[in-house]
Amino acid sequence: MGVSGTPRSVIQVSGIRKTYGTTVAVSEVSFEVSEGEVFGLIGPNGAGKTTTMECVEGVRRPDRGDISILGLNPFRDVYQVQNRIGVQLQQAQLQKRIKVWEAVDLWASLYSKSVDAARLLEQLGLADSRNAWFMTLSGGQKQRLFIALALINDPEVVFLDELTTGLDPQSRRAIWDLVRGIRDRGKTVFMITHLMEEAERLCDRVAIIEHGKIIDMGRPEELVGRHCPARTVVLATANALAEERFRAIPQVETVVRQGSQFTIRGLGEEFVSEVIQCLSENRIRVTDFRTMLPNLEDVFLKLTGHSIRD
Ligand SMILES: Nc1ncnc2c1ncn2[C@@H]1O[C@H](COP(=O)(O)OP(=O)(O)O)[C@@H](O)[C@H]1O
Ligand SMILES: [Mg+2]
To answer: Is the pLDDT of residue 310 over 80?
Structure first.
């Protein structure tokens, strides 16, 4: 926390641009990340997410724009920055026959300080695999090892790029818990994902990036409220007067009927409550009741005109 009690800004990116030949990978990207926050960059393949992150890590140099991390310049103060951040490796960067404990030992030796390796492996559920070769680990175990390596120097900021891509749902959930654990230890997390559910569950704030530009940024629920204010209730009732009552609900936009099933769409956070109140006041008995609430996926579709998976 800063002196004023407001969270300290740990990453400041201002107007960065990065081109590769004629490809504009990142164009005019600006954002800030606060201490203790999980900040996510979300967007489709090729959007410029990794390039942006690697500029912040000091691995790539932007053509123009300014970056500050922990009050330092990632290019001028490279050693200080590297000591205080943790970066998740990509698959190809570890030898097949390195053992889990050897990798952790090697990484620990690269930094001026490190946490207790045995304890870290224990925390990440890798204690039993400490003698296993990297190549024999499952996808989930490899990702946990990468998290261990990213945490070995007790970093203040942790960078995670597509951490759960290719994992099964169960391993993915386990990794999500680990990321929450990193945040709970007071660290700042800067992560990349193209999984909207992952972003919704983990990120305090997200920036949606496409074609190298941030198209909007905010808390997930804030983005949903801003771009997709519509709420939908699907219910079933045999009550003959129901349709007329539904049409009188405040903020209702459309009522579509198919037999005894109604799809009622309206605007605003209060809309679902209004529908429930209408059912109660008019003693309308229902045999089915579901809400369909918009999520980040819908926001993405609304902002870009296509699904993130296309
Ligand atoms: N080293 C590189 N050389 C040339 N083009 C690159 C390089 N790295 C990325 N690009 C291009 O820059 C764009 C953004 O890439 P990247 O930052 O990896 O996107 P993302 O991580 O969102 O998938 C893509 O068009 C990609 O092909
Ligand atoms: Mg990438």
So the answer is: no
Domain that holds residue 236: 229-293
Q: What is the Å distance from ligand 2's center to 75 Cα?
A: 21
Which residues does 82 contact at the CB level (< 8 Å), separation at least 6?
A: 58
pTM, two decimals, is 0.88
CA-nearest residue for atom 14, ligand 1, is 48
Task: Kindly state whether residues 23 and 164 are assigned to the same domain.
Answer: yes
pLDDT of residue 93: 76
pLDDT at 299: 94
Same domain flag for 247 and 211: no
Determine the residue of 16, 50, 52, 308 to mutate for testing ligand 1's pocket, defined as the one with the most ligand atoms within 8 A of the Cβ atom.
50
Atom of ligand 1 nearest to the CA of 47: 22
Short-list 139, 133, 185, 134, CA closest to 162: 139
Quickly list DSSP for 22-42: TEEEEEEEEEEEETT-EEEEE
- Looking at residue 101, its pLDDT comes to 96
- Mean pLDDT, rounded, for 14-39: 97
CATH of the domain at 280: 3.30.70.980
